[in-house]
Write a structure and sequence with these properties.
The protein is mainly alpha-helical. The chain has two helices and two strands. It has a domain of 70 residues. It has a two-stranded antiparallel ribbon with strand order 1-2.
């Protein structure tokens, strides 16, 4: 059986990159939606559409805040070896590998 070596700093950098990419994508979506809401004609006919767009912008801003929190919390993730499982640990079992860091969800590295 082939032994696979994982470098925690590479995984940590990968997670940081994924978070940064999500932040950038969300910023682009927010900017696009803001521009689209400005382009809608300012007549009562389009009020409900503008209102829905504002709600969508609000939701995206909340997601952006959560992603910025993840990015900030990644700075607390340690990169050193320990005997006990803690923040920054890489846990390898016979079923899966777990990187204990922020709640990013499932990712493949």
């Amino acid at each position: 059986m082939e032994k696979i070596v994982f470098v925690k700093s590479d995984i940590r950098n990968y997670v940081k990159t994924v978070i940064s990419e999500k932040i950038e994508k969300l910023k682009n979506f927010i900017e696009f939606t803001l521009e689209a809401s400005r382009d809608i004609k300012k007549t009562p006919k389009y009020d409900s559409m503008r209102e829905e767009m504002q709600e969508e912008i609000y939701q995206m801003q909340r997601q952006l805040g959560a992603l910025n929190d993840l990015k900030r919390n990644m700075s607390k993730v340690l990169n050193n070896s320990t005997e006990m499982i803690q923040l920054g640990s890489l846990v390898i079992t016979n079923k899966a590998r777990f990187y204990i860091s922020v709640s990013l969800g499932e990712f493949f590295f």
